[in-house]
Amino acid sequence: MSMRDYVQKTRHLVSCIVTNPIDVASQVHVFIFGMREGMTRYCLTRAEPSTLEAAFALVLREDYTVASSYARALTPDDRASAPEPMEIDAIEAESRSRSTSTACGQGSTTTTARATVVHWSATAVASPVIAQRCVARQLQSC
C-alpha cells in the first residue's frame, strides 16, 4: 500500500470514530507505528508531530523525498532512446588547433571538417543537418 493510500485509510478510520473519540496523541502514535519500517517512519518518529494532520503532511513530504532520492536505473529501451552527449568543445578545440597549424586550401582542413562530422553525435533528426552546415561554414571560411 502506498503512503498516500495509508494516509487516506487513516483519515477514513478517524472520521468513523465518532462516539468515543481517541485523543490526538494516541491517534498519532497508532498512525506512526502502523507504518512500514524505513526512513519515512524514522523521520516521522524523530519529528514528533503534535496533530494527526501535521503527521500526514510530514509523512507525505518525507515519503516523496525518500522515494525521489533513489536513483532510477535506465531500462535498455530508455538507454537506446536517450540522446548521446555532443562533445562540441573538444571538437572545436581540435578543429582550431589543426586549422591554425595548416594553411587554408590544403586537404587537412577538409579532413578536419570531415572529422568534425564523424565526431558529431547524430542522435536527433536535425543533428546531421547541423553538422553539415558547420562543415560547410568551416570550408567557406578558408
Description:
The protein is rod-shaped and about 85 Å long. It has two domains: 3-69, no CATH class; 88-140. It has 142 residues and is mainly alpha-helical. The model is unreliable at 115-125 (pLDDT under 50). Helix content is 69%, strand content 0%.
Describe this protein with a few key phrases:
142 residues; mainly alpha; 2 domains
Overall body shape: rod-shaped
Radius of gyration: 30 Å
Arithmetic mean pLDDT:
71
Order of helices and strands: HHHHHHHH
Number of helices: 8
**Main sheet?**
none
Distance between the termini: 67 Å
Structural class: mainly alpha
Q: Low-confidence runs (pLDDT<50, min 5 residues)?
A: 115-125
Number of strand elements: 0
Proportion of residues in β-strands: under 5%
> Percent of residues in helical segments?
55-70%
Total discrete domains:
2
Protein name: Retrotransposon gag domain-containing protein
Organism: Phytophthora fragariae
Detail the topology: elements first, then pairings.
Elements: H1 3-16, H2 24-33, H3 39-47, H4 52-69, H5 76-81, H6 88-101, H7 107-119, H8 127-140
Helix pairs in contact: 3-4, 6-7, 7-8
